[in-house]
Each structure stands twice: as structure tokens, then as C-alpha cells.
Amino acid sequence: MPETIDFAGINAAALPALPLILRRWLPDGRVVGVEFVARNPRRVDRHLGSFKINVRSGRWCDWATGDKGGDPISLAAFLHGLSQAQAARRMAGMLGVKVLQ
User: Staple partner for 87: which of 13, 47, 61, 76, CB 3.0–4.6 Å?
Assistant: First the structure.
């Protein structure tokens, strides 16, 4: 039987810690209301404003490029150039939670 990564569980564990995680990954960003606003490190982004992450839901979007995702794992995959599975495993390790269901 193949291993099943607990994406939902890892994302759920990440949400309460998301503001702290974002400060580590995007140190020049800041919380504005329910959004973390930062420069996108994957492109030449000189100003805060177009790259936003909702700290309650984990949804994120770069309004300048259209890159977007619906959860912390997809953000980790995008920022670090990983697959969804690699990002989930890395995030689970960072959070100290189980990877598999």
C-alpha cells in the first residue's frame, strides 16, 4: 500500500504558526490586516504590495505574475522550488508533525 502524505494535517498544523514561518521565509515582509505582504523572492520585486499571503487561510498570490496557491504547503513549494510532496515533508519536519496519514 503506498504511503499517503497528510497534506491537510500538515497545512492545519502550519496555519497557527504561519506568521512566524513567513517572517523566517520572507524577512522583509509585514502583516497588514489578515495578509502578510512581502516581496516575491522568485522574481525581481522591488516593492511590497503585489505578493500577499492570507495568514488565516494560507492562500497566497502574486498579483503581478498570477502565481497563486491555496495553502502553506503550496507556498513552501513555490518559494523553495520543491514538489508538493517535498514541501510537505520539509514543513512537517519544521513543525514536528507526522508526514503520513
Answer: 76
CA 62, 31, 55, 100 dihedral sign is positive
pTM: 0.92
Positions in the chain whose pLDDT score sits under 70: 1-2
Cα distance between residue 62 and residue 21, in whole Å: 18
Structural domains in the chain, CATH included, are: 7-93 (3.90.580.10)
- CA-CA distance, 17 to 3, in Å (whole number)? 26
Q: At what angle do helices 84-95 and 7-25 cross, to 10 degrees?
A: 80
